[in-house]
Design goal:
With 501 residues, the protein is α/β, with parallel strands linked by helices. The protein has 10 helices and 26 strands. Bound molecules: alpha-L-arabinofuranose (AHR).
Amino acid sequence: MAKLFINEKEIKGHINPEIYGHFSEHLGRCIYEGLYVGEDSDIPNVNGMRKDVVEALKEMQIPLLRWPGGCFADEYHWKDGIGPKEGRKKMINTHWGGVVEDNSFGTHEFFELCEQLGCKTYVNGNVGSGTVQEMSEWVEYMTFDGVSPMADLRRKNGREKPWRVDYFGVGNENWGCGGNMTPDHYANLYRNYQTYIRHYDNSAPIKKICGGADTEDINWTKKVLETCFASPHKKENHGFMDELSLHYYTVPGVWEHKGSATDFTDDEWYVTLKKAYRMDDLLNKHFAIMDQYDPDKEIGMSVDEWGCWFDVEPGTNPGFLYQQNTIRDALVACINLNIFNKKCDRVQLACIAQMVNVLQAVILTEGEKMVKTPTYHVFHMYKYHQDADLVASVMTGNREIGTENDKVPMLSESVSLSSDGTINVTIGNLSIEEDAPIEIALAEKKISSVTASILTGRKDAYNTFDDPENVTEKEFTDHTVKDGLISFTLPKNSVILLRIR
Ligand code: AHR
């Protein structure tokens, strides 16, 4: 029997809602078809944005959206995506499938989408092939309220008031697709570019995100912090950065043969989950460097790309990164989100890649049809952690399971306390063989009610356009409360949310 001891009196940190953020790139059918269909489409839309998708994302409580890339960001020239649509430049999306990008979704459309979603905005600038002037003018265009060439241009294009840019990323993966730079070169460019991200509205300063490392590249983190963290103006303007990013994908196989999203063995199940757990170790390694430069945790870690990366669905464009999503993806999401919650003193933001029709998507679309994936349901269950306090929790009797080479703890958990006093517990059972009897004990709280929901199914169960409800969140009532202890059995392959009042 596993026991989860919760000390709801011991607050360990605050869970920034942006940890539950999403990422939408001009890649495959994420933006076009998935989110934006245009005003003239037969698919029901508001100002071109799909109604069904917007509704589902709001219901999931999306807190933040990152755009326009990814690798695309360092080839994106924002002026191509403003003004009358018929006059917008067409370009080839060289990274993703070599298709024509007609720029019909640009800055105005992004903010329209975020306004409909009611979420914060994370705009990613172009360092790889753009100039300081281009980046600085974009910030002026988006956020300046006075009289200036860019603010006037925005008004001419139909938007009187500036928008709010919550986060601005200075380049993306500049060690790779964003310019193949050395850390020293990028760090110097970063110092230069970030200078011109002006806070035109001092009541809402833009948080600057410095491009971080790939997976385990500790040297990148070290070099970038060495050059960019120690600012003489630190106290006045929060230094040169507010966040440092990290990208890590869960790839069960090798890059050339990553493995199928739906057809996998028991061994591949455990390999995948073990690789998902690697996030914990990676964060510890990068945090060790961050702690040297920033012991007071003034800057946050922004894990702005994470999730499963499998081979594309057979018969689909390899450049579109379209993959299905099973219960295995749900467990990967559960592991990562529990890790981010537990490390919320440093992890301030995270974006799963990507929101619709690309990689570990929460939504898949086909024409006018839409399905919510198992990963969607995990985000929906975890939404109560947003803006809650992380509280101390320890799981005993949590055995290691898996194969000889790939072992993982059977249960992954995190616990938070909402401002109304509700305790939110999320637990995943990673075993494909065994159900897990669990008992929960609280420090002092008298339990008046427990409600729960569960996501479970065969290890490779997923939703299709013909069977969209195959894997969904269901009410879970099979728990008892006796002598202050909550008891239940968590089936194999499942994720549970308990709300204790
Ligand atoms: O999410 C797909 C791609 O993965 C992004 O464009 C890039 O940043 C990363 O390598």
